[in-house]
């Protein structure tokens, strides 16, 4: 197993991973039949945003972590995280490794904060993110509708490069 960047030529493998996770987890945004494959669009996203994955020796992608970075000037210091792991590969330390690599990359890139949302009932994920240093900043009330019920989501974020000013000079 390897933790490494996902390249644009791996768009189809990433799509198959995402579809599998959509089938296995109720906590992903897409229902299994809602995600569509657009090779050009996903390849472009892979070029512009940060994607890291868990890959088997055969090159199959079994987990991913994506950081979307806006092109809007006022928020280009923020990375929004989306992540998922195929069930058979969970609880083996791969997600932690992906986050560790992502945090290193984000700090090198000069990002100031990483954000994510998580359904409040997904306690294992909330605990995992808190262990990584993410803090709860707010609640999106009734933002997810599934299984005939509305669910709240937590806004979580981790501040990076807190000891630096805009010119990357230490300020403490």
List the helices and strands and how they pair.
Layout (H helix, E strand, L loop, with lengths): L1 E4 L5 H14 L14 H10 L1 E6 L5 E9 L8 E8 L8 H16 L3 E7 L3 H9 L3 E12 L2 E11 L13
Parallel strand pairs: 4-5
Antiparallel strand pairs: 1-2, 2-3, 3-4, 5-7, 6-7
Verbal overview:
There is one protein chain. The longest helix is centred in the middle third of the chain and has 16 residues, at 94-109. This protein has helices spanning 11-24, 39-48, 94-109, 123-131; strands at residues 2-5, 50-55, 61-69, 78-85, 113-119, 135-146, 149-159. It has a seven-stranded mixed sheet with strand order 1-2-3-4-5-7-6, sandwiched between helices. It is built from four helices and seven strands, in the order E-H-H-E-E-E-H-E-H-E-E. The protein is of the alpha+beta class.
Q: How large is the share of residues in beta strands?
A: 25-35%
- What's the story with the biggest beta sheet? 7 strands, mixed
SS summary, helix count: 4
Query: Which structural class should the secondary elements be placed in?
Result: alpha+beta
Order of helices and strands: EHHEEEHEHEE
User: How is the quaternary structure best described?
Assistant: single chain
The first-to-last residue Cα distance is 40 Å
Shape: globular
Tell me how many strands there are.
7
